[in-house]
Amino acid sequence: MELDTENESRFGADESLAELHELTLSAGAEVVGEVLQRRDKPDPATLIGKGKVEEISGAAAMSNADVVIFDHELSPSQLRNLERELDRRVIDRTQLILDIFARHARTSEGQLQVELAQLKYMLPRLTGRGVEMSQLGGGIGTRGPGETKLETDRRKINRRLQYLERQLENVRKVRRQQRARRESVPVATVALVGYTNAGKSTLFNALTKAGVYASSKMFATLDPTVRAITLPSKRTITLSDTVGFIRQLPHTLVSAFRATLEEVQRASLILHISDASSPNRAEQDAQVEIVLKELEAQDKPRLHVLNKLDLVPEDQRDALINTDDTLYVSAKQSLRLDALLERIDAALKEDAPSRVKLAVPQSEGKALSLLEARSRIFSREYRDGFVDLDVQAPESVVRRLKRFVR
What we know:
This protein has 14 helices and 13 strands. With 406 residues, the chain is α/β, with parallel strands linked by helices. Strand 1, helix 1 and strand 2 form a beta-alpha-beta unit.
């Protein structure tokens, strides 16, 4: 069962409800009904009007629904009141997204991040959630005299929060060490960001051949993945896939995933991936901008990559023209990916390629192999035991072979 109230998003009500539908399916639930109400302002007690509460209660009973999902964040009191009135489990959009994250987190880091966000969400909502939470408990050494189970639960959650924070700080330290090692050599990092289900992981796989899990379900990718790729200039860079963004992304998630999203903050270039076929593209792009601003990454060099070109009707594709900072591609069908790599190559300053002429002794097998692997060779001539080459190579390669520069 889903419900949407008119919200402050730039999304229309129908689009918002459709997105909630997709989120619900991604969480593994079956949608048995939808209700939409427009109000000038939310009811402080139940968010929706009394009559609508009765309507939903009847519909939920008839359809035997287990859960009622609101496309709006509910206050602790609204959550309690609605559960009492509807006699059903009630969750809001934030909790639904947290549930999806919990289902899709595969690594220990991802699981730590999701649990941290869930507990931060749960803590202010403990009060009054069932009689069992206000009963006095017994037991020596488990809680002080007269403490309620609610207070005990709150203490347990706070202890767990402190533990998770320590574990994630260890993760951040490891990431910083890994990043420091990467930054000790001139290798640029390019981060993929975008609205959930824009095709980031499919593009990541197409560029890196990494085989990262890609799915049409929302938030299929939670755990960060970094892979090396070689650009047309033969420079090696690292490409980082990140969690998808969404409107009203819970702040607790942004905070919990900050260790992961540091890859975005430290990237040399951001690829903002959009779904070229989505009718809500402008609104989705605006939500990505909001999260980038929260990460203080809004001013980073950026390329806008409009993916899923294969889903755009053919008669509309001719009007989609690439510009200096916008490219249309299809990751699924590998359309225009060469142009994307060329554009990435031109945008990056690290280890910049330069064109040089070299005279390398034929006996210098390692140097010749290095040039074969790491440079573009425009011409090659053999004379008197030397190989004369006209090449374009990254600065790091030219520096290693500077003794052969003519």
